[in-house]
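agent: user wants the full assembly modeled, not chains individually. Plan: 1) parse entity lines 2) check alphabet per entity 3) run joint structure prediction 4) return tokens. Steps 1-2 passed, two entities, 373 residues total. Proceeding.
--- entities ---
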Amino acid sequence: IYLKPNQRHSYADIYQLSTGPNKPSTVNISPLHAILINKSIKMVGVRVLGNTGPKKAAKSAPATGKSARYYPADDVSRPKHSRAKKHNAPKIRASFTPGTVCILLAGRFRGKRVVCLKALESGLILVTGPYKINGVPLRRVNQAYVIGTSTKVDVSGVDASKFDDAYFARVSSDSEEGEDEFFANDEAKGAVVSDSRKADQKTVDASILKAVDAEPLMKNYLGSKFSLKKHDRPHKMVF
Amino acid sequence: MGFTRYVEVGRVVLINHGPDAGKLATVIDIVDQNKCLIEGPEEITGVARQAISFRRVALTDLTVKIQRSARAKQLKGAWKEGNTLAQWEGSSWSKKLEAKKKRASLSDFDRFKVMVAKKQKSRIIAAKIKELKA
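--- prediction returned ---
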């Protein structure tokens, strides 16, 4: 609580208030009040507002009638406000837990229903088709473009710890382009998927496929695409 | 032809709008041309005693035998005697409401299963029609 100076609480009043049966968590007193009492107030649970830190304590020293306990010989420079950007943990929507069936809304695989594996450090979600069912590989997806449904698949057998943002980073090609190669590259090149990626896909999908086969119609469900039909009202649909 | 469901003391009504929407209540007394006094009974349907406009309410076929301004205890006794709640839940009106609620709460996977079931059903029907036409 804040005691107003015009109420003229005495030192004894403040002491009783701060130690009495219904004591508030802190009793705040303005510096003006401290002057009026003409006593330095050092009680547990009583705080004289504005008197914190060595510099401020030095400023208020004459007001309390007692010199401040401490002030440094030379001016202490305060650290400047840092402009470095703070990186907080990304906010992941509560509906994206490992094993949730998600609907992709944008991108190459829009409409597909996929299984969510985990949330990555960058805030993206790691999903997999499974590849055999709907052709979606291990992929990162922005959660803004995904609907998390309430359906879950058991992915406890999946070890997704090795997958992080660095795993999906683009592989830089070392070759410098000369003129001939520049024109040759204009033709479309098929995507080359590394063997390690294929192997990882197989291991991850193996346990998921077992869980999917256990649930009737789940395989067909994951293989089908989501679309809005004529009388669908998305704001009223429960996913 | 003519009206069959009358506003009367004891008429069971279904509340359509407001915080108690979807719940049953009984007309205990009539205030004026536009509103009446209703009560659940609170222990059975959860509707407290209140005045409500007729516009917010739909009359059902059911009535309960009570006197005007019956007390909560008497109303509850009358509901138990007439087995009103069971009668309501057996009616097709209440079943349709339940079905609507269920449909609204289906998940995406449930909707997929419904679609598959509908397709299987129409397959069976079409096969039978073909058989009968032949």
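agent: reporting back. Helices of chain B lie at 42-45, 72-82, 84-90, 92-104, 108-133. Chain B has a mean pLDDT of 94.
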